[in-house]
Amino acid sequence: MTHPAPDADLQDALSRLEASSQRQLELVRRVVALTAERDKLAARVRQQDEELGASHKVLVAAKRHLMVSEAARVAQWEWDMTGGKVLLGRRWDQMIGEVVEDRRWELGALEARVHPDDLPTVRQALKDALSGKSDRYIAEHRVSTAHGWIWIESIGMVTERDAEGKPLRLTGFNSDVTARRTMHAEIEQARAQAEASNRAKSEFLANMSHEVRTPLNAVMGLTRLLHQSPLNEEQRQHLELIDTAATSLLALLNDVLDLSKIEAGKLVFEQVRFDVGRWVREAVALHRPAAAKKGLKVEVEIADGVPWKVAGDPGRLRQVISNLVSNAVKFTDFGRISVTARMAPNQSELRRDQLRLLFTVRDTGIGVPEDKQAHIFEAFTQADASITRRYGGTGLGLAICARLVSMMGGALHLLSRPGEGSTFRFTAVFEQAADEMSVLTEPAPLEAVTLQGLHVLVAEDHAVNELLMRKLLTQMGCTFHVARNGEEALRCWTGERFDLVLMDVQMPVLSGLDAVARMRALEAAEPGRGHTPVVALTAHAMAGDRERCLAAGMDSYVSKPVSPALLAQAIQEARAARRAPDSGWEPAGPDDVDDLFGAVMESTPVDMRQLVRTLGGDLEMVREIAVAMRSDMEVRRVAIEKALAERDAAAGKEQVHALKGALASICAQPAAQLAKRLESAWREGGDWETVQVAADLLAREVARVDAALAQVAEG
């Protein structure tokens, strides 16, 4: 018996051991591979779980969005541009009033429902959204429904694009805006009706003003003429009652027109320099006789700090003060009335060239109950119904005052206790007056106006007003010819030379505006005729009437009833604005002025006689002013030309405004008027061509002024 060798057994064991190791290694590899596969599966499961969660959130959000859309009553839509169909929500069925089974619409079928007039707008909006020109699609258009046309607002945006940026999907919603469009249409119709009503009111007020002022002019004018005739005491009292009643009627008419202008935003404020203290005192002086009859003491105090010259609208300031003082006199039976003017304590929120003044009117009258004070500044409101019966009035005065004060940059306040009196306080903002501006004074009285020898054409179709004009002109020392319609006036003017025309605006056959327009056309065609000054006499007093008269070629304007002083002032303004030197009339003056300035007088760019009178006959002072004015005009000329070149309206207005005041102060009225026109063209935002024409006219007239002043300075 033989036994295997030990080496063979060892080798066999090693082989088996190696095979076992290989099997174990393979098992490990399989375990690792299975583990990796398991991890992949787990990751995929987690990813799918996250995707399911996100999808659930999107689904929840979509449901919420759908609920919101339903609540907002909008119809969602989505245009799949690859398939060409538009998916519309259920709300769309309700909008068009039809039951639609297939909610996927062809684009053409939807376009067929769009109103033909709106289709171009829809297509353009869609084109802009798809091209990227607009970030969204917005179109408001009409859609055909089972019940007619409705308006919808369609809003959407591109929600999907391909890799090249080409739009694939457009999503949005439609909402029914028919009610909104109907409301807007009704609002627009109401606005149009309101504007038509306002125009009708303005036309009514204009006609009422004309119809009332025409007979009122005759009543007041003839009353004043009768006052100059021999009268017994009873007759004089009757005339005073007539004049008082007519004046009250005129005040009421003016209040109604002022309120209408304020409500229409057409009340124009002047900007001139004036003496505050003087205008306040004169406003109060108008009511001193009435106060004296009741035994009331009237006091006026102008504080030391109030500048004597400011720039603003003195007429509107006087209107407010006069109304407050008139009320104080009316409602005060005993005691006193005091009026004060001082610098307001609060000077904040103003420009450097502005200042705020405080005015106070205090009385010891009946007072105003506290529960009525909040409404006393409303139109047509009185503190008590019995007030109207006892004291009269319409309740317009304080309403107008409050609005005028507001337009002057201030506020009107009342402090009052029944039985103790009332205190009205108001502030107003003014500009600090430039030194170049002339101080505005009151219209000169009739006695101070020298019109002796003027030959006047009166165009007036009303017999009583004609008589009044005859009397006034006779008192002024004028000769006259009367025409009773515009055509007759034009014929008279063509065949005879007149120094002045008083033209009624509203006349038969040919209106005053048309007659003057033809006169100016004839003057332009025949330069040798010169320029005839024309004063508009009209019962119209609405906003814009004065501007229309001046635009037609008239030189000044006065509304009826015409007082002698206002007529004289209007005649002076018209003659000062004349553009021809050969009118045949010059103010009387001392002989030495003729000797020194005779050559200058012929051209009349400067009223040298008036300038000499203003300076008290100091001829040396006249020469000094001539030298200074020439220097100032040159500086202004350069500055205005620069403003024109740079189209700097603010700088131009500032220079022209200063030049206007300086020209007026040296009695160069034609140039001052042209400066005023240029300033108005700039202020009203006129086109630059109009501004340039006005500037050229002013430059030529300033050159004439400079030539006249040169003769004076070198004389």
Structure characterization notes:
With 715 residues, the chain is an alpha/beta fold. Helix content is 55%, strand content 17%. Helix 5 runs antiparallel to helix 6 (233-264) and helix 20 (619-646) packs antiparallel against helix 23.
Q: How is the secondary structure organized here?
A:
Elements: H1 6-71, E1 74-80, E2 85-88, H2 91-96, E3 104-106, H3 107-113, H4 119-131, E4 137-145, E5 148-161, E6 167-176, H5 178-227, H6 233-264, E7 272-275, H7 276-285, H8 288-293, E8 297-302, E9 309-312, H9 314-330, E10 336-343, E11 354-363, H10 370-373, H11 385-391, H12 397-407, E12 412-417, E13 421-432, E14 439-440, E15 455-459, H13 463-475, E16 479-483, H14 486-495, E17 500-504, H15 512-525, E18 534-538, H16 545-551, E19 556-559, H17 564-576, H18 591-603, H19 608-614, H20 619-646, H21 649-665, H22 669-683, H23 688-714
Parallel strand pairs: 7-14, 8-10, 15-16, 15-17, 17-18, 18-19
Antiparallel strand pairs: 1-2, 1-6, 2-3, 4-5, 5-6, 7-9, 9-13, 10-11, 11-13, 12-13
Helix pairs in contact: 5-6, 5-13, 6-12, 7-9, 9-12, 14-15, 18-23, 20-21, 20-23, 21-22, 22-23
Provide a short characterization of the protein structure.
This protein is an alpha/beta fold. Helices cover 55% and strands 17% of the residues.
- What is the terminal-to-terminal distance? 173 Å
- Averaged pLDDT, please? 78
Number of helices: 23
- Count of extended strands: 19
Instruction: Give the C-alpha Rg.
Output: 44 Å
Name the beta content range: 15-25%
Residue windows where pLDDT falls under 50 for at least 5 positions: 385-389, 435-449, 579-603
Largest sheet: 8 strands, mixed
Mass-distribution shape:
elongated
Structural class: alpha/beta
Helix content: 40-55%
